[in-house]
Amino acid sequence: MYVGIDVGTSVVKAAAFDGTGRELAVAARPVGLALHGGFAEQDMEEVYGSVVAVLDELTSRRAEPVELAGLTGQGDGVWLVDREGRPVRSAVSWMDGRAHELLDQWLADGTVETVFRRTGSTMFPGCPGPLLAWLDSHEPQSLDAAATALYCKDMVFRRLTGAPAATDVSDASMPFLDPRTRTYDNGVVELLGLTHRRGLFAPVHDRLATAPARGEGLPPGTRLSNGPYDLPACALGAGVTAAGDGLLIVGTCLAALVATTDLDLSGEPAGLYISTDRPGHWLRAMPAMVGTAALDWVLSTTGVPHEEVDGLLDATPPGAHGVRVLPYFAPSGERAPFVAPGLRAELTGISLESTRADLVRGVCEGIGYAARHCLEAAGLTGSLAVCGGGTRSPAWMRLLADVLGRPLRVVEGEVGARGAVLAAAERYGVALETSAWTQPTAVVEPDAGRAAYYAKGYQEHLQKLAGARGRMPG
Length: 474
Known about the structure:
The radius of gyration is 21 Å and the shape is globular. The mean pLDDT is 96. It is α+β, with helices and mostly antiparallel strands and 474 residues long. Strands 18-19-17-16-22-23-24 form a seven-stranded mixed beta sheet, sandwiched between helices. Strands 3-2-1-6-15-14 form a six-stranded mixed beta sheet, with helices on both faces. It starts with a strand and ends with a helix. A hairpin with a 2-residue loop joins strand 4 (34-36) and strand 5 (39-42). The protein has helices at residues 44-61, 100-109, 111-119, 128-138, 140-145, 152-161, 169-172, 186-191, 230-237, 292-302, 309-314, 356-378, 394-404, 415-428, 434-437, 448-470; strands spanning 2-7, 11-17, 23-30, 34-36, 39-42, 68-73, 79-81, 91-92, 148-150, 167-168, 177-178, 183-184, 204-205, 209-212, 223-226, 246-250, 254-260, 272-275, 282-288, 324-326, 346-348, 384-387, 408-410, 442-444. Residues 1-202 form the Carbohydrate kinase FGGY N-terminal domain. Keywords: Kinase, Transferase. Belongs to the FGGY kinase family. One of its GO terms (biological process) is carbohydrate metabolic process. One of its GO terms (molecular function) is kinase activity.
């Protein structure tokens, strides 16, 4: 049995696979996300306790021994721990918006562009650069008490194994890693005013860290690999490794990734280049802030259960009777394929005749247009795989294929956990048939007529977006 652990923002999961990649069992537990006044934080003890709980549940339900385990999890944010790996405060989530004023300043004075030219990363409020700078100014006692500023999976790995604090090149990619040398760019650290906090940065392992488990959740001695974080792990789990091929993750975060061997830091600053375990190979990433979270908000506001989504999507035509949604619901604005901390969602075209079906289709179409924008900016030229919670809706997948105007290789199940196992197997020299592990569960073809309709709708979306950005303060 091979075990993949995926420490998500809202749910922690552990999945068991056999040697052919067949998913045997999944254990999951929700975790809290405290949202208040633009702040977004998580209790590290709750997160770690949930990891142990799902592993206990998974291993107790299966008789097979654990061959090896791979770990992945949400990226960005700041997870401050002491020398024993214990939290010194709540984790600051990647969804946090407290540093938006600082980022606005860095956008205006050219700091954001300078960082992109050096590292290929376009900062957003919830990434470690602005968050550490904000904490240094407003909460220095937390940084004083910390030994290391980790990422989510690194905190969990340290607790599961007792290994020294460290991270990998994928998590370190935002925003301090030089993608050419695969080491921290101290010039960027200085530019962000963090040189005196340089000691908090976790050492970067060029290859994924490995260590035996101590016995919490996993049997003692289990071979465990740390990383990569969830976006590149999903790319591995979906088989997206050839240059030009892409992946769209329709989850809490709407993430567009395209594999590339071309590091071009000369274009418009947007998204980031995620370094991978293979030097000279990157993922050009455009991780938009909100994906299924936007649909969840509409469903909770209108009182529609998730199981009714497919029926509602089929109950109203393309265009949703004029209802249009700019799906920028995150309290910290947007980060891809542009950075706009003050941008907010807009719902237009609503009248007394509008139905719940119109609202649901409108937001799904808006998310589709945002996905198309991200994929174009990331340079998609090859095939496109899709994974994430949104794949559970066949009607949404048909709509998405139409909006994107291309076939979708739908990869269902725990794709991040699957990628974590594949990364662990590679690291430990365990031979697995990758093509069998990454087979799509379906291929959804676009309808030519609807694709043509949505091609025009996409241009209208870009115009509405330009207008919304033009109305932003400052």
